[in-house]
Structure formats: C-alpha cells, structure tokens
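Hey L., structure's done. Input below.
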Amino acid sequence: MTNKMLGRVVLTVLMVFLVTSLAFAQEKKEAVSLLDKEAYIPDIGTFLQIGGNTPAGYSWDGKDVFFRSGMSGARQIYRITDKAWPYQLTTFEDGVDFFALSRSGKMAVAGASVGGSEQSQLYLVDAMTGRVMPLIDPSDARYGSVVWAHDDASVYFISNEENMRDFFVYHLDISNGEYKKIFGDSTGVRGWNSIADLSKDGTRMIIGNWTSNVNNDLYLLDLTTGKYEQLNDDDGEVTYNSPTLMPDNKTIWLTCNGNDDGITRLAKMTVGSPKVEFVNDGWIDPRWEIDGLGFSRDYKRMSALVNEDGYVRLNLREVETGKILPPPPLDGITGGGYFDKDGACLIYFHGPTRAPDVWKWNPYTNDLKQLTFSIYAGIDRTIFRDPTLIHYKSFDGLEIPAFLYLPPDYKEGTPIPFLVQAHGGPEGQFQPAFQRNLQYMMLNGYGILAPNPRGSSGYGREYLNMDNYKNRKKSLKDYKAGVDWLIENGYSKQGMMGIRGASYGGYVVLGMITEYPELFSAAIDNVGIANFKTFLENTKAYRRALRESEYGPLSDPEFLKSISPIHKADLIKTPLLVIHGENDPRVPVSEARQILAAVVANGGVADSLIFPDEGHGASKRVNVIASYRKQVQFLDANLKK
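Output:
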C-alpha cells in the first residue's frame, strides 16, 4: 500500500470515528433528556407497578419476620430470611385475605378466597417451607377472625356456615381438623361476632358483637364452662375496640368513644362492672382519636395508633411503669407494633410520596432498620408530591377537613382539571397514604380534592353520626361545598371538574350527578350503590343488618327511594364511567347494570368496565391496570378538552 493510499484510509477512519462520536453524543444527549425527571412521565400502568409491603407476623424471639406483598401480581405472604432474600410462602391464585401466625412462629392459618367473593377458606401453612393444606372442607361460608390457642394445638375462628347470616365462634383441633361451635346461637348472641382477645392463661375470650358499624357490645366467654357475660352496658351508639384482658383476668385495656365528646380514647374496664374509666395520663394527646391499641405477649409494653387529622402515628410505652418510649423517627404514617421479647417492634411506614415498607424499631437502643424495599418501577420518587390539609365550611357552617393535591408546576389562581375523590364507608376516612394513581394524576396536570365529609371516622362520634339515616344527603352537600371552594379560590372552573368514588363513594358520585346535574363534566362510579332498596335486598345476608342501621331499613322503602340515584337517572347529564366486579358480595353487580341501563335509556353518555373475575374492586394487577387506564382516558377526554 502506498503512502497516499494509507493516508486516505486513515482519513476515512477518522471521519467515520468523528461521525460515530457525534451520533453517540447526540444519542447520549437525547437519552439524558429522556431520563430527565421533569420531562419524562411513564404511563399509569408503570405507576401501578410500584410495590408495597406490610407486616404479616413476627416471631416472639425476633428471628422471623413475615410480610405481605403484591410483588408477584397478587397479595402473598413472604418470610425474610438470613440470606437477604425473601422466601415466598403462599401462592394462592387470588392472593391471601389474612394470615395468623402461631405462637411458636412455625405454623400459620391463611385465609384465601377466589374471584373477589370474600368467602375466605382456612388453610394451614408451614411457616418455614410454605406447605399448605386445607383446614376445612370448601364451602360457600365465610371464615375469619383466627386466633391461635397458646399451645399451638388448636385455633379459634368465626364462621357464618350455620345460616349464612350470623357469625358464630368455633374451636378447631389442628391434629384432626374437627371443630365445634362454642359461642352464639339462633336465640342468643347473633349477628357479626368477632374474636377480640384470648387471656394469658387461655381460659377466657373477649368477643365483640357488632350491631351496626358504629355500635358493638363486648362479651367475656369462659372457655372452660361455656358460660358468658356481657361486659358493657350502654344505651347509645358506642364502640369498644382493641380490648385486651390483662393477666389478672380482671383488668381490660381498650379504646372507647363513650365519653362526653365522643372521641375514641384510651380506657380501662373491670370484669363485673360496666363502668368505663377513661385514661388521660399524658401519654396520648386528648385532641386525637386512637385507631388501635396493642400489647406485647408478656404485657410489658403497649402501642397505640393515634389518628392526628388523618396522619397515623405510632405511640409506645411500658405498661407497669408508664414510661413513654420514643416513637420511630419517621415522618409519615406509621402502623403495626408487633413486639418481640426484647421490646423491639415491627412496624410499617409510608406516606404520600413513599410506598409502604416494613421496618424494625428498638425504642431502647434507638436502632431503626428498614427490612423491605418496595420497587418504584423506575420512577424517581422525588417527583412525587405531598398534599396540603385544608378546611372549608359547608352549607350549615360545619368545617370539613380535606386533602388538596396540586401538580408540581401549579401556578396560583390558574384553573386546572380537578378530580374530587369520594371515600367509601361512609364511616371511612381519607388518609394521605401512598396512592400511585393520585401521584400520576398530579404529574399529568390534575388537582385532587379528597374531603372527609360528615359521617367520616377519625373526628369523634358526633361527626361520625351526622349523616346517618335521614341525614344522608347532608354529606352530599359537603362535597358540593368543596367544589364551590375550589372554584371560588381559582383552582378550577365549570367544565373542568370530575368526581370519582368507590363503594359508598360510588353512591356519592351518583348522588352528586343527580342532585347537582350541572356541576361535573366527568364521573366515575366504582362498585357503587344506585338503588338502596335493591342493594339491601341483594347484598350478602351477613351484611344486611349492619347496612340497614346506617342507610335506613327496608321497612322504610319510601325513604330508601328518596336517596336512591336510580330514581333520578333522567337528570344525569354528566358523562359516566361505571366499573364493577361480577362477584361483588357487598354491592351486587346489578347496581351497576341498573344505572347503566337507566342512563342509556334516557339518552345519556355511559361507559362501563365489568370484570368477570373480581368482586368489590379490582385486585388482580392486570385488572387494576386496565381499570385505571380506562379511567385516565375517560377523564382526559372529558376534562382536558
């Protein structure tokens, strides 16, 4: 090769290298811009694959930690091993409804149902290997409230197998699977019974009997004789929650809202006396309600979940000394409180911008350790946004708390598409937990208002009961006041407002677009009630009495008709999306079909998504993604015109 030819080759190579380098640099620049967290927002399907882990059990020696996670696509149970890799214990097709770990930590009872039916069946699980065997013959009955006997030889549970309506208490021998009823009958204590506590010596059981969602009674059952006595005696609607019988078999710690202001507070009772002694010793701020109370197995430590205006905090202290123990240094929502013998506790922690994970906190050594690590599906969680707690006045001057979510680039006074989020219950409470879809909505230009109207829990007995029976529509006026507040303050305007809700929140959606036909431009009813009469007639028998006490009895059909949106379907002008599950045991799918048919018959705009393999809300990941994709498309089409 001549020098001239060699020079040409070198020049060609240099040019190719230069062009390739420039192309690579351009690709790199484009790649960087794609990865820029301000510029690239994945679709809703990616957001919905962000993980979440919550505690499911903790061995007394502190060696074995069990947690529940949907990482496989359904909620299953995992055990944390010393090999730093979680061991999956359960593989039920539709996941696990509940998980009760034995005292030794070697076995557990899992409840699992199929297709959203909520007819949980009982399975014995080897907590080390995951080997599963059924404890009962499959049936159409529902089982739950599982408590292990202290020797791990038997379990107690509730079931409605006798008449498909009343939940009675049963005792099952693990060695042979035989069980018998030990509490409740057709002439005695009926309705919804649940096992609240088992005494330290294993001879006594506290049972809660629920006569409505806002009223229950406590019974003490002597397991040696079968005799029982009612512990409380009150005339009004009072709840007694989280009762624990202390080792003396006389003192009961619990929470109760039977005081003058109706705030659920720390309390004590003595067996044989119905008097409730409220404890205000400086541990819990009296302004707030207590959502739950727990004790360590040796009764040396106690935990309380304190609801601070929707934010739940874990409070800890010693029982005998009253010494207040430091809470975990985590700013968000904390729960759990499973203790081990050394005083460390297993908790979960999450918040508006953080998916739930399991942590271990030792208040004596201040040692905090994160045990699970939720995936964020490649999304930088620093782009997520916190809501602001606001209050606005309703039609009668009542102050309504609500959480306001705004996009990161929101400019004050600029109207944007807004979604009003209606929670279920109605005794529930919207809390600023991690919600993947809300973060997606904000990052795509939406604002969200999540009110806690009258009838919500967390604010005392009086507030809770303000929407009962014939006051039903007053809570709808609270939502209307929230929309007015948004418009008056420049956050949104007519034509850009949507509303969404599930279960009772679905009724709210239908109620709002019939009571205020011009208010919204998009509405999403997820497993909601359209006709209270047919809902009460067709809901599962074991639910009927509890719901009649809240919404009104079937014996008052005229009132039920007056609050049922189906009878005002001709007024619906708002485009409506209805989502439901074929197997819903709570709100039958016939409610969805009624309202869809009525809207279409009246010339309205209605779309639907009915899942054949779901119940009261979608739980399978593929269905959850399909549901929210449809919702986003529907909202974009109607609110971003």
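DSSP finds eleven helices and 36 strands in the chain. The domain at 381-639 is CATH 3.40.50.1820 (Rossmann fold).

-- N.
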